[in-house]
Design brief:
Helices cover 29% and strands 31% of the residues. It has a single domain, classed as Rossmann fold (3-Layer(aba) Sandwich), CATH 3.40.50. The protein contains seven helices and 13 strands.
Length: 249
């Protein structure tokens, strides 16, 4: 959603914007890197549509999915902390029988078959290590950064029982509604995919008075800008590049 990307948009230079099926695409530069920014909208179909459009339209080197997320109770994450995906998992695609829920292997039909490798509920995420300089630059910003499995759902969790069930089943940090769909499209196109989420709430009872969407979004965008600025073009002796890197995200 726009509030999940407004800080990044404000930092882009030489921005040009266009529309595609009601979604706005912004193209600009940040720290010498070409950036294409698009708010996907909520849900798997919107996310897959936006990702496919960007990959087909622009010569991107990677896709970075950012936004807010609900952390599972045992994750050790608090509101305002950051989660980085190591793997994306569809949490409710499958079949429900007398013994409970089973994943897509129970049906026997993969969501994707790429070079002979079958993908059912799980899709890879490119590893993302946070350079020490980024951790040093946090200053007085107090948030934890943890890496682990993400779960993508169509129905957001609204009970403690469901939160514990998904957390345990997938050994997951948090849930969202788009990530696995983006990971699937990137796998099909062989495009590196990263996912960074700010924690806005603890999944379980939906008490919105305890949520902080703004803090989660701001922390997520701050870290993303640092990663683009440092991790994706190297430190170069601590200096930013003086020319276009040629990379597009």
């Amino acid at each position: 959603m726009p509030f999940e990307s407004d800080r990044i948009l404000s930092r882009l230079k030489y921005t040009r914007s266009s529309k595609i099926t009601g979604k706005t695409v912004h193209k600009g530069k940040f720290s010498g890197i070409n950036v294409v920014l698009m708010d996907t909208g909520m849900g798997k179909v919107n996310a897959a549509h936006a990702t496919t459009y960007i990959i087909e339209k622009y010569p991107v080197n990677a896709i970075i999915n950012i936004g807010v997320s609900g952390a599972y109770p045992g994750s050790g994450l608090n509101i305002g902390d950051i989660a980085i995906a190591s793997r994306e998992i569809y949490g409710d695609e499958g079949v429900i029988g007398p013994g409970g829920w089973g994943d897509l292997r129970e049906i026997g039909i993969p969501l994707a078959d790429v070079d002979g490798k079958k993908y059912f509920n799980e899709f890879p995420v490119t590893p993302l290590a946070i350079p020490p300089l980024i951790r040093e630059r946090k200053g007085d910003v107090e948030f934890k950064i943890k890496t682990g499995n993400f779960v993508t759902v169509s129905a957001a969790t609204g009970t403690q029982k469901r939160a514990r069930e998904l957390e345990t089943r997938f050994n997951a940090l948090c849930e969202n509604m788009e990530g696995a769909a983006i990971a699937q499209v990137c796998t099909l196109h062989n495009i590196p995919f990263f996912e960074i989420r700010g924690i806005s709430n603890i999944a379980g009872i939906r008490d919105k008075s305890k949520w902080d969407l703004q803090l989660a979004s701001e922390n997520c965008q701050k870290l993303t800008l640092d990663i683009i600025d440092i991790a994706f073009h190297g430190l170069d002796d601590g200096k930013r590049p003086k020319r276009d890197t040629g990379r597009t995200f």
